[in-house]
Amino acid sequence: MTDYRKPIRAAREKVRAFGTRMAARVQVWKGKIRRFIKPAGSAFSRTGVRRALLAGCSFVILAGGAAYGHHYVKANTVSYYELYRDGELIGTVESKEAVEAFLSGKREELAAANPGITMELETGELTYVERSEYKAHPETEASLAALEELLDSHAVGVEVKVNGKLIGVVPDEETARQVLDRIKSEFAPEAADEAGDAAVRQPEVTALAYAGNAEAEPKAEVESVRIVEQVDTGRVEIDPARISDADTLYERLVTGTTKKTTYVVQKGDCIGCIASKFDISPEIIYKNNPQIEDDLIRVGDVLDLTVLKPQVTVETVERVSEIEEIEPEVIIRKNDEMRAGQQKTIQAGVPGTKRVTYRLVKQNGYLMSEEIVDEQVLEPAVPAIIMKGTKVIRGEGSGKFAWPVSGAKITSKFGKRWGRQHKGIDMIGGKSILASDTGVVKFAGKKNGLGNAIIIDHKNGYETVYGHLSKIDVKKGQIVEKGEKIGVMGNTGNSTGTHLHFEIHKNGTPKNPLNYL
Q: What does the DSSP 8-state code read for residue 514?
């Protein structure tokens, strides 16, 4: 510890020397003063003057000496800091800035030695206590060297977990986000995600009804893109060697199992039922099993259900619009002057057009569901007017068709479906099946692929087909009126769940029912 008595003794010696010099000067001034004072008996006596001078000189000497000593000590007092780490004294430093500059240099060295990785310097809790002493000498270099021995470091990364399972660790949050966006963009390039912060680009349309239908010219818009699984990210301390780059994390997320999976068809199975059981798209079953025709599968058939199952599932929701044709209504006018069975075209029908909008839900590019969400008539159809004889043939239809179920919702449309022709449309809704138009029951019974089925001849070139019924309420040859109940919706035959398969044939050729309903 510093001895404070030495500087005080030195100060006292300097004061004494200063007093001696001041006494000599007083004697000189005393001689000068005598020449100006008055003789004895005057207002000022010699004794009074002497006493006054001595008192004044004493005060000056003492005051001057004290002031000199104070300024001397103050001028040689040094301020510094005691540096503590986690409450323990490390040493003394000249300033806080010196410590911060030292630590900043260490951080730069750490970053240079670990490029692309976020490194954190473990300094502990550093605190300072300010001190000041006479001619103090803070040991800054020694204190910083001691602090350096106590420093440590660690890497900081961002871990990516899928449904609680750790997939990998990347350098930062931005890298994780870019990888996830890259995966989503592969199924909906530049599409708006749930946050709505990306531009929309029209993706390739893959709706069932549009496959191979170039004339439809559908327009698609991606509504949303999301990853189905719960993906969590968070900062974590980790060994730098365990931090992955963006490409490695991407491969881990998109690589899944391709283990061979087969299934033997059981009694009561259907394509949709099997797809639901294995949580896959029916499209995968058709793609892996090209031998399936017209949805026909038999008990004992071995189906290949192998599919790549990556760590994450990208779900996209698309709105697809298509211009479709509206078949003209046929208006029958009766003429008493014409014989029964004769007819004459008064006005030829002209098809109209309508814009139909579908909502498609896909997972990793495979279609999971589709539904009609909007219809807009662009050009109304011009009805055909036909004059017929007055002798009305019982069971003859009007040529204008009604929906065969109430509250109908389309589950599969007409046209190419996974490389095969779907001759009608599938729908769900009310369980009662209604005659779409007046006609005569041509067939009522079991039909290959359709299960319990009804075919109605409308005696005007049109026939309608109703498939997969659980119950048939009419008989062959029976005349049915438009809207009359003919059966109950079911899941018989080669069915993909309880629904109605509905077809419209014109002169023996299947037509798209949506153009007539």
A: G
In angstroms, the Cα distances linking 2 to 63, 69, 132, 133 are 27, 18, 12, 9
* Start-end of CATH 3.10.350.10 domains in the chain: 262-304
The tokens for 401 are: 């068709």
Q: How far is CA 157 from the centre of its chain?
A: 20
| 335/343 Cα distance (integer angstroms) | 9
Which H/E stretch holds residue 112?
A: helix 96-113
Helix 46-75 / helix 5-34 crossing angle, nearest 10 deg:
150
3-state secondary structure 87-105: CEEEEEECCHHHHHHHHHH
| Architecture in CATH for domain 262-304 | Roll (3.10)
8 Å CB contact between 407 and 395: no
Q: Where in the chain is the domain with CATH 2.70.70.10?
A: 394-517
Q: Could you tell me which CATH class the domain 394-517 is placed in?
A: mainly beta
Q: Are 75 and 132 in contact (CB under 8 A)?
A: no
Tens digit of each residue's pLDDT (9 = 90 or more) over 270-316 = 887 888 888 777 878 888 888 887 677 888 889 888 777 788 889 99
